[in-house]
Amino acid sequence: MNKKILLLSSLLFLGVSCKKDGVDTPDPIIDVVVDPVTTPTSNPPNILFIIADDIGIEATPGYPIGAIKPNMPNLERLAVEGIIFDNVWAYPVCSPTRASILTGRTGFRTGVLNAEDASTISLSETTLHSFLDQNTNSVYSHAILGKWHLSRNEPNRPTEMGVGHYAGLLGGGVADYNNWAFTQNGETNNSTEYITTKITDLAIEWIGQQEKPWFCWVAYTAPHTPFHLPPTNMHSQGELPTDQDSIDNNPLPYFLAMTESVDFEMGRILQSIPANELENTTIIFLGDNGSHPRVIQAPFNRTKSKGSLYQGGLHVPLIVSGKSVSRINARDQSLINSSDLFATIVEMAGVSLPSYQDSYSFNSLLTSNGQGQRAFNHSEVLNTNASKSGYTVRSLNYKLIVFDDGEEELYDLIQDPYESTNLLDNALSNDQQMALQELQLKATEIRQ
To answer: Which residue range is the domain that position 122 belongs to?
Structure first.
């Protein structure tokens, strides 16, 4: 049966944004019917989505900032064979990012706004997996393997929300990577397997069992705290001391080792997929938020890292490679939001979905150089400290942050990409005043 979804009526051709740069009235919302597709394409691509935990652009190879990079040959190869996206925003903490991908909706709408008391997703939300089933006649097998962090102690919540198979960690983190609560088939038991390796083994096993196109969401906990030294074969940081004092005194090499372990395990997944199957697979790599304040590198700093509305908290790596990508060794400057992965993955599967809720597909950018649909980006976080809680909206040039304590900050991201000078501390030029008004109007539109 047909499924009704919300689309903005002003969708234009590639190169023109759904949401215009000017201060026009908001586009009307209309009902559009998407016909289900029995066979989305003659040979639907497999989709491998890998999300790493707490890794910003300064800690990711291929991005121009950060003095010390982890050794990630598998990710670097994907970048050479695909596209690095340079202007991607997620949320300052993990749960809202995951909810935005799963639903195509902002945290303002889902209520998932932090990683603590506002981290539970409603059962009423339509998930990406359910949407794929409903609009492709269930062409795809799908699974989420690894970190969930969208409900509390509910082992069946992922499958209740339409995920075909779930196994992994329900919560947001572990105290010990070798001793953690493993959930599978609705039951939770203690596991003493190294969690990064276990998540990989789950993915390899599940992918190997599939007999039709598959969508595999692999959510690593690494390099989330606690910082530690992974098994020696998984990193190139050498024989570092493993006592807690050494780690606390200089956590960066341990963070880098953990990041390298993600690349090592990602390589194991790719190597396990038969060559002909891998040729028909699209690979997406994303960081869920910025790096932890203890390990973030210049030009960011501890106060503008994970958990913050500054670039160090929400500017994340996104690299896409494989079957759906024909732009090779490319960079793209389009504004992308984590929520955009919803519509993009649906379009990868062969269903036309230029936009859905708060999600705008960038699927066309995988094959053609051009301007993405977004003229504005948005993110938000809920914090018990009102001076750290609020929302932010940006255009290509300017960024406005509005905190819950009433304070506001405006930055010129072209001249001041790392937010050192709040323009509101001085008189604004005419151009800056117009930019501020535009961002204020757009924030109101986005958050209504």
So the answer is: 46-379
